[in-house]
Amino acid sequence: MRIGLIAGEASGDLLGAGLIREIVARHPDVHFEGVAGPEMQKAGCAALADAEELAVMGLIEPLRHIPRLLRLRRRLVDHWLEQPPDVFVGIDAPDFNLGVESRLKAAGIPTVHYVSPSVWAWRSGRIKTIRRAVDRVLCLLPFEKQFFDDYGVDAIFVGHPKATQLSQDYDAAACRRALQLPADAPIVALMPGSRGSEVSRLAPVFAAAARRIHEGDPSVRFVLPVAAARLSAHIDSAVADACIADLTTVVNGRSLDALRAADVVLIASVTAVLEAALVGTPAVAAYRVAAFTAWLVRTFKLINVEHFTIPNLLTEEPLVAEFIQEAATPDALAAAVLALLADPGRRDGIRASFAKLQEQLALDADSRAADAVLELARA
Which residues of 285-304 are buried (b: 16+ CB within 10 A; e: fewer)? Predict the structure, then answer.
């Protein structure tokens, strides 16, 4: 059996690696090939291109990459039309993968899209493209399946892999010791993102907010995990400009340890917000995009949901304070963090609700995804 895959960015690489391992456990002779990151390659996927090539984001920012991406997509489609896989799996990266899936499905190759595009949140017109391009969608969130069912698209809720991997069962004190953080002081984790564009916009804001948090409560200390070495200059500059270097422990990676050690996290609203919820850390979320991107979204009313963090879409009441674009000011973020630090009862209630959310999503997604892909390949 041959399976083609395309993963975008590190999160897609991890999903693909889990899927590959589950399939190999059942069928050791399956051949995997496609666009893969280090984890997928380690799991046994032959790389036709590296997943990092798809790591572009936004509405306007990726425009300069279009010629290169179109050449890559054409090369991959030609390859698989000449050597058809038994099934193709596009992992996230919908703007790239749906084009590939459409061509392959038209040629009779079964197609799976793993991670529902956020059509329920914005650009809902894409549902027609999805229906034309894919035979099956694998959903990480429970409400997504009902959305696709309503439009006649075969969809399976597999759960979220991180919910299987993460829980509130850990020793926070041990995490503090490992990061050399004070045992008794209130700890706030600062996590301004993993992409250069995110960090350049949010690190100065988060650092300024940290200065104000310390002014409001001088006992607070901070931990700031740096997602990648290339981001260190942005981080160091922001910390220095806000004069919080003596209050802040900067660590390379170790974001989970930082989340587990913290009483509250100030975080960019991406995958890490869900990770914070799964380990039970109360969060304040902020996000900023390029000004023109924000103008497009507002002018053409591209967003269809009230909340932009995943935990708030899954709980009865919003548990994560959200600040987007010009609302994400140091004063506003500091006030939200200080309110949580001052209310341990509220933090305990949030942790209890996050624990229920973790149980809801922990369905062994890798195994369920493997079942769904193999079933379609056999069919």
Answer: bbbbbeeebeeebeeeeeee
